[in-house]
Amino acid sequence: MSAAARQSSEFERVFRLQKANQYAIGNTGWRTRREKIRRLRHAIEVDFRDAIREACLKDLGKAPAETDLTEVFPVTSEAKHASRHIRKWLRPERVATPLSLFGSTSRIKYEPKGVCLIISPWNFPFNLTFGPLISAIAAGNCVILKPSEMTPNCASVMRDIVGELFDENEAAIFEGGVEVSTALLELPFNHIFFTGAPSVGKIVMTAAAKNLASVTLELGGKSPTIVDETANIKLAARMIAWGKFGNNGQICIAPDYVFVHESKHDELAEALSRQLVEFYGAEPETSESYARIVNQRHFDRIIGYIEDAVKKGAKLIAGGKGDREKHFIEPTLIEDVPVDSELMTNEIFGPVLPLFPYRNLNEPIEFIESREKPLALYIYSKNGRNIDRIVDNTRAGGTCINNNDVHFFNSNLPFGGVNNSGIGKGHGHFGFKEFSNARGVLKQVLPSALQLMMPPYNDFKRKLVELTVKWF
Ligand code: NAD
């Protein structure tokens, strides 16, 4: 038997175990599920905290404090939120019954989807693997996880955590790359929760279609930011610099590019440059707070985008250079970027921020509307009319006003994209519902009035049907 065949049969073995166990897991009550979530939280917050920090430092050059804020905290806060609300989420929801169905009651039972697959990316390995896992557990599912092969140290810590907390017939993790994903996608999962690139999302959805598995696709794209003439520029620069250059720009919801009113362009460019020095010093390659590009392939991709833009007439405001061996690219601000350059036709996913001056608010609105719907859109403004105009005339997965990225941290908000940036929503109750089937249950308690309208259709019955159509 070849190695690939052996691996596939191992996936199938665990999948079958989970299939056989799904009712046992699905019929657990809120207390049991809350306890599992509590144990996961404890593992991340306490037992494996140092291992997580170390793995993120090795794989992404990420400072421990940034790991705590962007990997540990989102998972622990999602766990706390789920623990606080799970009892209510699991309670069957009574809904009204129309008069035409007199004599019956109706409720919605949120039942688990069954056996689910979670495929996650490398940019926030723990956050984007364990966040969905909490929703899946809360909903009572069995789960197979496939973290990214690009952050192997993180994947190996996740394997230890999952192995310690769960039997494989409830949750299991398989490490590896595209071949592992492809083999797993052959299996008839009930739900697939994928986080990654839109191009791969299409592959996942095609595979899911073969089994009519439902999907949640958390994808990416270019998230625009608009800074209007009324904005607090100092605040905008601080927040944009943080949201764009944290994790070295490898954030799905990072501001991808900025439209700034022409009267504020120079002020914003200067404020951003100053802010970057304040965050990372005059020599960011020596800063322990500045993360690194995940690998040389992505380094080449991003440097290629900068070179392509400069060749086509773009001007560097700050940065632009890198060190391939060290996976380091300077925090880069760039202007006059042609919209057909690679920097503007691809998601940047790196520490490069193009600035575009505009004169009339129609310009950014029309530009954004001519592109794929973004995962996030940010607005810096003190003018309520401008804010409403932008929100009403664009579409995006999520939006922050006078801030960026932080909507991710609110478990009360749905998180996800729209069309090219994603399908379905995660976090909190939205994540729980994504991993659940909303089963409509109608219970007949008194004889049904519909019995009066059953064949044969005599005059009396026809009249009754007519009255029903008219009045109910
Ligand atoms: P990716 O799509 O390349 O990989 C994601 C996962 O899919 C990995 O586990 C990988 O092994 C697997 N994979 C890759 N190619 C595959 C294929 N052909 N068939 C099956 N599986 C495959 O994404 P990435 O490079 O890890 O992450 C970057 C992308 O993810 C960006 O587009 C970013 O915007 C997006 N992202 C979105 C969110 C979100 O919440 N919406 C969060 C983080 C990242």
Sheet-strand content, in percent, reads 15-25%
What is the share of helical residues? Answer: 40-55%
The CATH class assignment of the largest domain is Alpha Beta
Give the neighbour order of strands across the main sheet: 10-13-14-9-8-15-16
Number of strands: 18
Radius of gyration: 25 Å
Give the ligands present.
nicotinamide-adenine-dinucleotide
Q: What's the rounded overall pLDDT mean? A: 97
CATH topology of the largest domain: Aldehyde Dehydrogenase, Chain A, domain 1
CATH superfamily of the largest domain, by name, is Aldehyde Dehydrogenase, Chain A, domain 1
Q: Alpha-carbon distance between the termini? A: 65 Å
Main beta sheet: strand number and arrangement? 7 strands, mixed
What is the annotated CATH architecture of the largest domain? 3-Layer(aba) Sandwich
Shape category:
globular
Instruction: Flag low-confidence runs.
Output: none
Topology:
Blueprint: H1 3-26, H2 30-47, H3 49-60, H4 64-90, E1 93-95, E2 104-112, E3 115-119, H5 125-138, E4 142-146, H6 152-165, E5 171-173, H7 178-185, E6 191-195, H8 198-211, E7 214-218, E8 223-227, H9 233-245, E9 255-261, H10 265-280, H11 296-311, E10 315-318, E11 322-323, E12 328-329, E13 332-335, H12 342-345, E14 352-358, H13 362-370, E15 376-380, H14 384-392, E16 398-401, E17 422-423, H15 428-434, E18 436-444, H16 459-471
Helix pairs in contact: 1-7, 2-3, 2-4, 3-4, 3-6, 4-5, 5-15, 9-10
The structure holds nicotinamide-adenine-dinucleotide.
Residues 119-123, 128, 146, 148-149, 177-178, 181-182, 195-197, 200, 203, 218-220, 252, 347, 349, 375, 417, 422 line the site of nicotinamide-adenine-dinucleotide (NAD).
